Amino acid sequence: MEKLIFEYSRPGRRAHTLPEAPQVNFGVPERRSLRLPEVSEIDVVRHYTRLSRQNYGVDSGFYPLGSCTMKYNPKINEQIAAFEEFAIQNPNTDDWRMVGLLRILYETEKMLCKIFGYAAFTLQPAAGAHGEFTGLLIIRAYHLDRGDTRRVKILVPDAAHGTNPASCTMAGFKQVTIKSMPDGGVDIEDLKKNLDDTVAGFMLTNPNTLGLFEKNIAEISELVHAAGGLLYYDGANANATMGIAKPASMGFDVCHLNLHKTFSTPHGGGGPGSGPVGVTEKLKPYLPVPIVEYDVYVNHYFLEDCLPKSIGKVHSFYGNVGVIIKAWAYMKMQGAAGLKKVSEMAVLNANYIKARLQGVYDIPYDRVCKHEFVISVKEFKKQYGVTAADIAKRLMDYGYHPPTVYFPLIVSECLMIEPTETESKQELDAFCEVMLKIAEEIKTDPELVRSAPHSAIVGRLDEVKAVKEPDLNYFLC
Questions:
Q1: pLDDT tens digit string along 209-232?
Q2: 335-457 sits in which CATH class?
Q3: What is the DSSP letter of 242?
Q4: Domain spans of the chain?
Q5: Fold match between 80-333 and 335-457?
Q6: What pTM was computed for the model?
Q7: What separation in angstroms does the CA of 95 have from each of 15, 101, 260?
Q8: What does the angle CA 406 – CA 174 – CA 205 come to, to the nearest 5 degrees?
Q9: How are beta strands 300-304 and 291-295 bridged, if at all?
Q10: Is domain 80-333 in CATH 3.40.50.1000, yes or no?
């Protein structure tokens, strides 16, 4: 016999059935005593305290990891997300029993729509790359729904995040690389050469991974749309645009964001993440289901799953709700003026560091940057044999987490530096002084830098062997 599961009764809602679970006898396990080691409380406390001191996080110090926004996040947002009313909520609960949580999801979506200019957002994707994949599935559904089956290519700049081509392949597209100009922008002529009736869309990060705003974005949008394609916004980092520039206004049809970078969730350690996807009005029918809706007549929030053209579910439930709650609290506390100031300070801090390092380090793109910028040390390598990785490891001796190295790939021996808006001028000056000191060490004692780190618990590793022959038991002993 089947059990009938009734949902909130309104037009468009459906009742569906679930079969009863079979009765299974798993037996009674054999009772036996556990052999646990005898460890005193003080030994346990000291062990974990020692491990915490060996670890590095944004609470420990400056974390200038380019392209990732490793900024300080208010602890109150963690506390809000941990409220018992949220933390123990079962995702299978009926709509009417979790109206408060649905209201938060609904308000988060509407705030994101207002900030970035879109008609609707889905909060389901669990990370940035997952958002890319979801956005590309929406682009594919849009073209197929119009009977346009020839569009099988996605254009991707050579400075794009590495997840872009991977997402293209997973979504069933062929990726085509578009060259960059010497000023760091898209090569318009190369773009024109590759635009035809087989192009489904163009993925673009703006500001791009070089930290530069695409000054030709209006022309790019016109060219892509004239060819029948859609424009996809890789919004991995919104730290430089909130309150200043909306991707929808630039002509982007689809956009993913990383709540775990810009909107107050500590980033790193493999998760958790959240990569909401925003769409223009014409793409709303293809959003994943369910979506959170609000019935103004009965003042009720509910989950709607009746979207006939939807690409289906992309997450087991409604997304990483804990991350979404932190983003909701962050946006509520900041307000429109606060979010704009976040962007302004992120841009100011990045340009301040760039100006202080200029003349000592090579800045390959001498333009006003946005939230991040890149430097190249190829001349240091040529003259003194010191690489970007060597400088990154030497920074560890001074108590700093290294910036991103060797990305984007189009810049030789590069370091990508992103200070974020949460660092003070004193911290930025201290970091700049260390970078300048390392530059001097390269000229006077290059071996000191080449053999770094000297003060870390683990010294210079054989990185190739570590990848090919990892000893996963070493730290368990």
A1: 999 999 999 999 999 999 999 999
A2: alpha beta
A3: T
A4: 80-333, 335-457
A5: no
A6: 0.88
A7: 14, 9, 26
A8: 45
A9: antiparallel
A10: no
